[in-house]
Amino acid sequence: MRLSDLAIGDCGVIRGIEPVGGSAPHDMSADELERRLLEMGFVEGAQFRILHEGLIGRDPIAVKLDDMRVALRRSEARTILVEHQRETAAGKPAS
Prior knowledge:
16% of the residues lie in helices and 32% in strands. It is α+β, with helices and mostly antiparallel strands. It has one domain (3-85): Roll (SH3 type barrels). It has a five-stranded antiparallel β-sheet. The two termini are 18 Å apart.
């Protein structure tokens, strides 16, 4: 599953980055986008939660990534592979 497929409140764990055709902004190569996302903290094992979506086209999205908040375009989120997890009643991801 890809981060771009999820909605507000969804959470889980980052599993990797896999660029897909046309997902990088026109001025950035897929390798450069992958490096940038890794530097931002989208590393394997990091926990995330979708916090907010923009009004037009649900873009950009705000993500809580471990202890920080990051905003990114949905086209960038399309390159991030995730494992979607259900929440417990306490609002924490189920293990």
